[in-house]
């Protein structure tokens, strides 16, 4: 048993300290005070998250290559790309809003996907853990700023509101964008930060 097995583990919900104890496959360790999740034993967790992350990256590329929505009215047709949403705000003089849009729906999600991929590959291949530790720490700090779900909700509202005024064409990027939201949400649910920190810590000891 390694020295890290004796290090105290703080509950993320109430701060109660516990000593690490291995649990059976598929089981979850809970806080003795509040019942919050401390860590899980999922043997295939890292592989599952890796698959979701790779799928998310491919869908993210498709989302930015193809139009998100098309609008046809009075014989004219206009397409909207994901990046084009921030450009439209910029051209109308809403520079701050344009910056927030590009960061929250493009930069932060892409950073999260690439950071998770780097962390998982570092654990799998035993690379130097310091870059992965840096990326994982900042990914968790930036995560609240990734607002893909909010943007997706806004797109759905626009589809409903504009449906009576013009003919809406749902582009390829709309479905790939929905896939990005789903894969990133599933990855967040599956990925256990305790396991990640523990595996990266083992790399520091090698």
Model description:
With 206 residues, this protein is α+β, with helices and mostly antiparallel strands. The chain has two domains: 41 residues, no CATH class; 161 residues. Helices cover 59% and strands 13% of the residues. The chain has seven helices and seven strands; from the N terminus they run ββββαββααααβαα. It has a three-stranded antiparallel beta sheet. Strands 1-2 form a two-stranded antiparallel ribbon. Helix 3 packs across helix 7. The longest helix has 31 residues. The two termini are 15 Å apart. The relative contact order is 0.16. The mean pLDDT is 82.
Total E-strand runs? 7
Instruction: Report the helical percentage.
Output: 55-70%
User: What are the low-pLDDT stretches, counting only 5+ consecutive residues below 50?
Assistant: none
Give the CA-based shape: elongated
Cα gyration radius (Å): 21 Å
How much beta, percentage-wise? 5-15%
Number of helices: 7
- Mean of all residue-level pLDDT scores: 82
Organism: Thiothrix fructosivorans
Protein name: Paraquat-inducible protein A
Transmembrane segments: 49-73, 93-123, 144-162, 174-197
Pfam family, one: PqiA
């Amino acid at each position: 048993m390694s020295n890290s097995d004796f290090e105290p583990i703080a509950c993320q919900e109430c701060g109660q300290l516990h000593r690490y104890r291995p649990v059976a496959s598929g089981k979850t360790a809970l806080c003795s005070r509040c019942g919050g999740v401390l860590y899980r034993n999922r043997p295939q967790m890292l592989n599952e998250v890796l698959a979701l992350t790779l799928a998310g990256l491919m869908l993210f590329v498709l989302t930015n290559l193809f139009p998100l929505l098309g609008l046809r009215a009075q014989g004219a047709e206009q397409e909207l790309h994901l990046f084009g949403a921030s450009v439209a705000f910029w051209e109308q003089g809403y520079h701050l809003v344009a910056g927030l849009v590009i960061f929250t729906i493009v930069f932060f999600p892409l950073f999260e996907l690439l950071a998770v991929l780097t962390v998982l590959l570092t654990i799998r291949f035993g690379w130097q853990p310091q870059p992965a530790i840096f990326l994982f720490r900042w990914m968790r700090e930036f995560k609240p700023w990734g607002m893909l779900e909010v943007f997706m909700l806004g797109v759905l509202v626009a589809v409903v509101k504009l449906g009576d005024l013009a003919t809406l064409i749902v582009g390829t990027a709309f479905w790939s964008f929905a896939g990005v939201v789903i894969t990133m949400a599933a990855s967040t649910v599956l990925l256990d930060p305790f396991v990640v920190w523990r595996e990266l810590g083992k790399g520091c000891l090698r």
